């Protein structure tokens, strides 16, 4: 384990709830992943991914969490901290929402709650990596105070690396 406090795994905002994964999230998680246009994973594969996410959370003390709208109670995506291309000391913030939930401020709201949760762990900086073509995601991060650090080129195109200091 690290010298950092464990991230809270239940977060509430005005309109959203972020909570731990459940096996019952598998079908909706499949549907979300299929919106990427690269096929639909099997529900069994997604259940395995959920189990892996829960194991990683128990090991690292950080979490990628499902996002639900509070009033409707529906799963609209995920948001949280991952090691991804970064480190446990300076993790990445990651989020993905169903297309029908885009443009409503949900990503900014969820990511803001995750920023607060990350600061509560004692971390001093977060990263985010976003495809250069993803202007809406870059706007979300800029609204939250992230600043561009550098750009790298990967097999699937340019990736913008952003960072944000935590209080």
Secondary structure layout:
Elements: E1 11-12, E2 16-18, H1 26-34, H2 43-60, E3 64-69, E4 75-82, E5 92-97, H3 106-120, E6 125-131, H4 135-143, E7 147-154, E8 157-165
Antiparallel strand pairs: 1-2, 2-3, 3-4, 4-5, 6-8, 7-8
| Cα-atom radius of gyration | 15 Å
**Number of DSSP E strands:** 8
What is the overall shape?
globular
**Which structural class do the helices and strands define?**
alpha+beta
Uncertain runs are none
Strand composition percent: 25-35%
Strand order of the largest sheet: 1-2-3-4-5
On the 0-100 scale, what is the average pLDDT?
95
Protein architecture, described:
There is one protein chain. The protein is of the alpha+beta class. The protein contains 4 helices and 8 strands; from the N terminus they run ββααβββαβαββ. The strands form 2 sheets. The protein has a 5-stranded antiparallel β-sheet, with helices on both faces. A 3-stranded antiparallel β-sheet has the order 6-8-7. A hairpin with a 5-residue loop joins strand 3 and strand 4. The radius of gyration is 15 Å and the shape is globular. The model has no long low-confidence stretch (mean pLDDT 95).
